[in-house]
Amino acid sequence: MHPAYVEGIGVLGPGIQSWQEAAYILKGERTYVPGNTVLSPPESLPPAERRRASRGVMAALQVGYEACAMAGVLPAEPASVFASSGSDGDICNAICSAIAAGDHLISPTQFHNSVHNAISGYWGIATGAMAPSSVVSAHDGSFAAGLLEAVSLLVTLRTPVLLVASDQDYPFPLYATRPVPDIFAVALILTVAPQPGKSLAQIRIASDQPFTEMPGQTMSEVPLADLSGAIPAARCLPLLQSIARRDTGNVVLEYLDSQYLVLEVAPC
């Protein structure tokens, strides 16, 4: 498959506030200290939408803007792919609690904000984007599924593509079934051609063996391995580490139960 070039990255998660901070940690130049994810209000949204926006939406907008700023593209320009392992945990919990209590009059606003494609709509409202947009969900393999969709869109449209993968924590009692402890979001700007002096890495779906039964790579540092294992969107960390370290070689990402995605990665 045609290579994709990474022009911008945004990262937000427990103890991580930006790609720059993540890069220091992933290169081993700074010790990773777990903490709570800290969100910035989405000032680009109109007041009414800002009040309704979930924490997951805020995180996705934050990393999307960071990646676009790093790549030097206007947020409204790229086509987009939004990936998530599930929907808004807080709203799903509220809806399930209402139904369990016998209240079947569910708020329409809550309902349309509960689904996993709500983030794409908020991105369009915030940026005025009219470019094609896809939304995917593949449980714990959602980052890999989103990357596959983004590369396919990139090859088809030959225009920059923004990939955003994000997940939000679930409150009790849903947490007992889906123990996602906090928010994590990552964004990549992908292009079909490298930009001299700006491109961070070249990634390609392995042409000879794009999928393997070999388990996906794990992080060698225990706290980062714990983060990657706890939040599905953080399954991106092996790829981000390869980019940060300017490694050349294959990266294997978790995708399906018996099928893992193989990427060929090289620095630019």
Write the layout of secondary structure elements.
Elements: E1 4-12, H1 19-26, H2 47-52, H3 55-71, E2 79-83, H4 89-100, H5 108-114, H6 118-127, E3 133-136, H7 142-157, E4 161-167, H8 174-177, E5 184-191, E6 201-205, E7 211-212, H9 222-230, H10 237-245, E8 249-256, E9 259-267
Parallel strand pairs: 2-3, 2-4
Antiparallel strand pairs: 1-5, 1-6, 4-5, 6-9, 7-9, 8-9
Helix pairs in contact: 3-6, 4-5
Word description of this protein:
- The chain has 268 residues and is an alpha+beta fold.
- The chain has a single domain, classed as 3-Layer(aba) Sandwich (Peroxisomal Thiolase, Chain A, domain 1), CATH 3.40.47.10.
- 37% of the residues lie in helices and 21% in strands.
- It is built from 10 helices and 9 strands.
- Strands 1, 2, 3, 4, 5, 6, 7, 8 and 9 form a 9-stranded mixed β-sheet that branches.
- Helix 3 crosses helix 6 and helix 4 packs across helix 5.
- The chain is globular, with a radius of gyration of 18 Å.
- The protein starts with a strand and ends with a strand.
- The mean pLDDT is 91.
Structural key phrases:
single chain; 268 residues; alpha+beta; Peroxisomal Thiolase, Chain A, domain 1; nine-stranded mixed β-sheet
Biggest sheet overview: 9 strands, mixed
Task: Indicate how many domains the architecture comprises.
Answer: 1
- The helix fraction, in percent, is 25-40%
Radius of gyration: 18 Å
**If classified by CATH, what would the architecture be?**
3-Layer(aba) Sandwich
N/C terminus separation: 18 Å
CATH fold name: Peroxisomal Thiolase, Chain A, domain 1
The coarse silhouette is globular
Q: Assess the beta-strand content as a share of residues.
A: 15-25%
Structural class by sheet pairing and helices: alpha+beta
Can you tell me the CATH superfamily? Thiolase/Chalcone synthase
Count of individual helical segments: 10
